[in-house]
Specification:
This protein is of the alpha/beta class and 433 residues long. 41% of the residues lie in helices and 18% in strands. Helix 9 (199-208) packs antiparallel against helix 10, helix 10 (211-232) runs antiparallel to helix 11 and helix 11 (238-246) packs across helix 14 (270-282).
Length: 433
């Protein structure tokens, strides 16, 4: 079983006292929601009942009439041939709940009743329920689940949490990471760039060590995402959302990484494609990083809505969009050319986003000054510049002259170092800064 960070939060939910809510696990398709709910139930409950509304659409009838808990339990037991539910011991898993809006509405009544714990999982919830009046506000605890983070990938590779925590001592840049550790982690980082965090891809890599088989998994998932666009996007957005999705490799390998509608289609505009990007964002397939009109705290107050970069939800899937040869280039550390900067930038975006860090960048108007990422620490803006290889950091040096900027990070393939307010760290340290 792949160890996931969300398990600790689920245990806190199960052991919480006072008013009990249902747990809603949101996340992009195939990131492991169903598996983690099932394994959590197997480990912590006497009895588990699972309903998948995609695989078992007939169970929607349970929720089509009365939402009284006893009535729903009776209907489920009759349809499954069960004797009953165990008060305090049964976990009900409502999987793919986006396909049954009435089941989402029923969470209020399960929570009010309190005899049984309920975990609902769903993809595309931002799409399906954006305008639904049946969302049970106050009766569900909603949490977003991501594909495996780099830290979780290291856990799966046999590197324990205590070893990863030990890297925090190098965060200031004043200590050098031992070469054996540094080179081993850089190798693991390249593996993560090629494999990514989709559980099926990670398990395939751990089982077979075959990048060709991993690539087949990625191709299937990318096809499934395009199928979701065709099935769930409105008729006016289907082709446009698919074209936006397929344009991502071109968007991030040009010199200016800002998302440009003209890359999707010659003469393309926000008016034509804006709703399609909204759909992909709400589906969890992409993440947006917004430009800042002012380098200051709080970042959200200075976000420029119409100037952004777009990253795919998982670095492994993103690199798979370039083809199998990209995996070979990454694993052999032979990646070069114009694509390299955008790919390493996407890697850091992946690590930050899966840590729950909002994505922002800064590009000064009428200037070459550009900072790849800006994060918040102690209510102050902290610049982060990503260098795929050795190189100067003129923009970072310039922004560090500002009094309100306490420090800045340069992430590279090199080991640690610190000069005044500039801290140089290996790229893998993005998971602890």
């Amino acid at each position: 079983m792949l160890k996931r960070k969300i398990t600790e939060m689920m245990l806190q939910w199960k052991n919480s006292t006072g008013k009990k809510t249902c747990l809603l696990i949101r996340g992009v398709r195939q990131c492991g929601k169903t598996y983690i709910a099932r394994e959590f139930g197997r480990e912590h409950y006497e009895d588990v009942v699972e309903i998948n509304f995609v695989r078992q659409p007939e169970f929607a009838r349970v929720f089509s009439g009365s939402l009284d808990v006893d009535d729903m339990v009776s209907a489920i037991c009759i349809m499954t041939g069960r004797a009953g539910f165990v008060p305090g011991g049964t976990l009900l898993i409502l999987d793919e709940i986006q396909d049954c809006p009435r089941a989402r509405a029923s969470l209020k009544f399960w929570a009010e009743d309190g005899r049984y714990d309920v975990i609902a999982t769903g993809s595309l919830l931002g799409i399906k329920f954006r305008d639904e009046a049946s969302i049970p506000v106050g009766y569900e605890t909603s949490v977003e689940m991501f594909p495996l983070s780099f830290e979780e990938f290291l856990w799966a590779s046999g590197i324990g949490a205590e070893r990863i925590a030990g890297l925090e001592q190098y965060r200031s840049g004043s200590l050098i990471i031992p070469d054996a550790i540094h080179f081993a982690l850089m190798e693991k980082l390249r593996e993560y760039m090629a494999v990514g965090g989709m559980p099926d891809a990670v398990n395939e890599y751990l089982d077979s060590r075959s990048m060709q088989r991993v690539h087949m998994v990625h191709e299937r998932i990318l096809y499934d995402y395009q199928d979701d666009i065709a099935r769930y996007a409105s008729s006016g957005d289907r082709i446009k959302a698919r074209n936006c999705f397929l344009s991502l490799p071109r968007q991030l390998t040009k010199e200016n990484h800002k998302f440009q509608y003209s890359i999707v289609e010659k003469g393309g505009t926000a008016r034509k494609f804006g709703s399609s990007l909204d759909w992909l964002t709400q589906a969890g397939m992409i993440r947006l990083s917004h430009d800042l009109r002012y380098f200051g705290f709080p970042l959200a107050a200075y976000s420029v809505e119409d100037n952004f970069r777009v990253y795919l939800c998982d670095i492994g899937l993103f690199n798979a969009m370039f083809g199998f040869e990209m995996k070979q280039a990454i694993m052999s550390d032979m990646l070069d050319g114009p694509a390299k900067g955008g790919i390493y930038e996407s890697l850091v975006a992946d690590i930050f986003a899966k840590r729950g860090i909002p994505l922002h960048f800064y590009k000064k108007d009428d200037s070459t000054l550009e900072i790849d990422f800006v994060i918040e620490r102690d209510a102050r803006p902290v610049p982060v510049e990503v260098k795929a290889s050795k190189g100067s950091s003129r923009s970072l040096n310039e922004i560090l002259k500002l009094e309100e900027v306490p420090l800045g990070y340069k992430l590279t393939s090199q080991n640690c170092g610190a000069v005044d307010k500039k801290i140089t760290l290996p790229l893998y340290m993005a998971m602890v800064i």
